[in-house]
Amino acid sequence: MRVPYTPPMSQAQIIACCAGLSSGFVLCIKALPWQKPVITQAMSQAIVQPKVAVNQPKTVAVQPKTQSAIASSKEMTEAEVVAYIDKFSVGNIEESLPAYYVGAAEGTRSVDGGKTSLYEGHTDPGNGVWNKGSFSYQFGEGLTAEQSSQQQFAKIVAHIKNTALPQCKQAGIRLTYWELWILIDLINQAPLAVTEAGGFVERLVEMRKKGAAGKWSEYRIAWEARKWSFWNPAKGGWDAAGLRAYDDLGKDISIGKDQDRRMHMIVQAMQRHEGIAIGGGNDPAPVGFILTPKVFQQGEGVARTPDRSSRGDRVAPVNN
Predict the structure, then answer these.
(1) pTM, full prediction
(2) Fewest CB atoms less than 10 Å from the CB: which of 61, 64, 90, 247?
(3) Domain coordinates of the chain in residue numbers?
(4) CA 194/CA 203 separation, integer angstroms
(5) Angle between the N-to-C axes of helices 78-86 and 177-189, in degrees from 0 to 180, rounded to the nearest 10
(6) End-to-end CA gap in the chain
């Protein structure tokens, strides 16, 4: 078989072929039988210093995992609230918004929803009891972390249906989507701050009025209501001995900071999972918004068993 004649390559053609290739190609050029190439300085640079594509880092904005169909300020009817919370009782509670949001406040879940080292179990800093699961359930002896979360969420749902919603109906208000999540987390942290007189719903009615006059953000309205739900009108003082992380600043500021911290974690989780932005919190921390009642000094430091910060309540654990 006759091999077709291939004409010799010109210097320009060799440079063009070699540009961007490795120096190993020089051996191929030198081995060409029909022509002894002349490697100029330009050719050498093209061969020895090939062009390398540089991967520039890309800045990608973090997108929410889902987009909420409910605005944070949307008021929900009683039926809408019941239908909404009931849907989380079906399936794996640990892969749900309640576990993500309350868990972020508890420190058992990251803002992204991942499980932290506290998830499987940790000692409660308020009362020293062993906590387990996303909701830091305290009656979980013999239960897995997931089973503990199911039990605690069942209690939260029972409180909403049997206590909070009737209170809202009596007060003539509807919870917004944002306020519902604050209520859920408060029930988890301190149910007595919802079930007792002067609890969250009563304070919410009061703070909505003050907020309308003072043009408060929805964050501050909920924060004020949540903070003042720990004020015991019967005792004339703060009823939250278990919330003592910031007690060196004064009990009023200590409670305010604790509630602000929890709410701020929920805000971050809501932004991450539903794309909902809640403004007005933690910037600066609203601990300076102190509404001093007439009997502010009374009852400070009084021993209370149980107090409103206690996780124990009058509702027995739900047995499925």
Answers:
(1) 0.70
(2) 61
(3) 11-48, 78-288
(4) 10
(5) 60
(6) 87
